[in-house]
Hints:
Strand order of the largest sheet: 2-1-5-6-7
Strand content: 5-15%
Radius of gyration: 17 Å
Number of helices: 9
Amino acid sequence: MAQHRGSAARRRAAMVAATVAVAVVAGCTQSPKVVPAPPPPASGSVRLGWWAAGDSLFGGHAGVPAAPAYLPAAQLIARSGNTLVPVHLFGEPQPTVRQQIERAISRFGVPERLVVHAGVADLVARAVWGTTFPLERYVAGIAELDEWLVGLGVEVFWASLVPMASWSTLGSTGQDSVRQQLNAALRELAGERFIDCESAMTGSGGHWIAPELVQADGVHVTLAGAFAHASCISAELSWLHGRDLPVVTAEG
């Protein structure tokens, strides 16, 4: 059985790599092809089939869209700064991932399926704001959110927290080890509902993000990174679950 899982994992990795190849040119000396983000959906258009929720790794940053821009069949409800665990910045409570999902449900109803990428804003809170909690607190936040959504009848998929640059604030302050622990907890909790895009976003020779996929802050993705991430999510959903969430670019 372990051998079968290993073979399946290798085949899946090859499939993801082939899909991502159009966005990332092999070799560090070449510039990757920048895949233009497709235009946003028309205002007010809501698709209850798929939602994408979480932090700015899904919502986009500094005018650069993230993976859901290439997954237009999913309604994006991600925003910057959403955390798993409630935190305060300068005395003001920051929004949580659950709160943004609750607001979306109150407006549009309950979605059939949801892809969540959450936890990076919590790492920022640890590194920048000094708001640290035991790992168990973050894991409990994930478990509670998952239980609530499953109880609503939502098919929930959890995306692994993407790697970051070693020189970023999060990487240099040791938050990457927390990220890896959160991914391990997500894998255990979600089981077959875990979408693993670690290898698709990692550069050669280490566990840090490929430099062509990350913005100057060392955390948020470039357009090439967004497309690579979306391609991985789409391939994982198709390969493991037979779920169709196609990648679409502005070129078709």
